[in-house]
Amino acid sequence: MRPLLKELVLPRRGKLTLGFFLMLINLAASMVLPGSTKFLIDYVIGARHYDMLKWLVLTVFAATILQGAASFSLTQLLSKEAQRLIAELRRKVQEHVGRLPVAYYDANKSGALVSRIMSDVEGVRNLIGTGLIDFVGGILKAVLSLIILLRTSALMTSLALLFIAIFAFGLSKAFKNIRPIFRERGKINAEVQGRLTESLAGVRVVKGYHAEAEEARVFGKGVQRLLDNVLRSLTAVSLMSLSATTLMGLVGGTVMFIGARQIIAGTLTIGEFMMFTMFLAMLVAPMFQVVGIGTQLTEALAGLDRTQEVLSEKPEDEDPRRTQKADTIDGYVTFENVNFAYDAGKPVLRDVSFESSPGTVTALVGPSGSGKSTIISLIAAFHEPGSGAIRVDGADLSSVRLDSYRTQLGVVLQDTFLFDGTIRENVGFARPSATEEQVLEACRIARVDEFAERFEKQYETIVGERGVKLSGGQRQRVSIARAILANPRVLILDEATSSLDSESEAAIQEGLAYLMKGRTTFVIAHRLSTIRRAEQILVVEDGRIVERGTHESLYEDRGRYYDLYTRQHGIDSNLFLAPGEGDKIPEPEDKPRMAGVAPPTAASLLRGGTP
After folding, report:
1. Which structural domains are found in the chain, ordered by start?
2. Beta-ladder partners of 596
3. How many other C-beta atoms can be found within 10 angstroms of the C-beta atom of residue 335?
4. What confidence tens digit (pLDDT) does each residue in 342-389 have?
């Protein structure tokens, strides 16, 4: 038995046993009507025992009522239990997927994962529900019918079994070939659903480039692949149905021929012949059930295999090395000769070493693709270094329990992600246990209150999918409030203000300044003016740290940072005096004033002081 199937079945063995008992009652009751045919024709009508008619009819009525009650109870018991199982399995898979490392998400589309969680588990109802019981019940019914048929006419039964055996052999081969089709269908369905999810999420990009027709073409191609797969499976199922129908005709014709000869010869009564045909139908009927239910069970097992594949992935927090719990950390972060590659043979970081102390800002600058975001991912423990070590307060991060570490980690990204909920829910996401006062205080510090309280529903305003109902600056303020509420010891700011206009950036910088106080902060910024007062600036190129120091020292060295800074601000380096005359370094263009408030300086904001 598959491990997952065993895990699903064993806790429900009591209800399955009750279901099996109800199935036996249903089966026994279903035998009464065909069995009564012989007595009706041979004894009641043929032998003129009319006094038996009343009792025979009452017995048939009672058996029918009992069969109906058992069938109703069976459906209520197992069908509802199957739906509970689907809900439980979806929760289980979603929880497991949520614990998988970031690398798994990098390798799998979100739409495909949604399909694994929502669609693949659907077929389980056929394994735990009435499908499996009907399948087993059909087999038992066939066995009981076979015993009665052999006792009635061994010759007719043997010939019928010969046809059935040939059909069963072909059926087993067909199911062996059809199962890969169902597995492929699950894969195609996940791909198509994944592309559709991406297309809907990126509708503004699609419309901005007038790519509706191209998206329709790509989706149509995926739907066609899915259709081709379904048609292949339908062809296989149709062939099985054709075989079953042909079997029925061959068996029926054979029984008619031999039965008629035996009746004429006096070795078989008419009542026995009628009873034989009815029980023969009960023997052949499971063959048709196997085609229908067996196909459903095969599809369910294919979905179960795909679900098992997900559940077999190792969660990142089950690493046996991660035994050390991080209590309240100070925030000393050290990289020791760290090397990293996403793909073997393609290094992204090479021998990276640096130290960051609590209460300091470490800025990472350099061209796109240089490795800055990878360093941030390693700090957040989204990935592990290939060699070297990352230490937090002296402890190797690869040995620290992630739940205890990430609760002390705060992240503010350039592409702020908000859930389709209220402003209050998005801010409170960082700490669900936070009080109302704590949430509102975080909103005040991040200046979320300036726009939230102008809305009709204030903090209960729905922000829309990914926060589309808010402006870029408003979304960033909500993100900063979320980080403030988390009260992290290690803070990551990944291009937190690069997409904003000057006015929005000035407002947000105040919240960021509060957020960075006393924390170990890592900043990625293409706007070099925003990190001028960082205690440590690391210039990253081709996966290496090529320069490090403060803004002043790096500028005076006139190296790579000097080139980046002067190029970004349109400065002709020949116009400047010697590096020692740092007071001559021109400042970037001032930001516009906000409602009578002087624009803050970089120094005051990064230090948290008053402009």
Report:
1. 3-310 (1.20.1560.10), 341-408+490-611 (3.40.50.300), 415-487 (3.40.50.300)
2. none
3. 23
4. 887 788 888 889 998 888 889 888 888 888 888 888 888 888 888 888
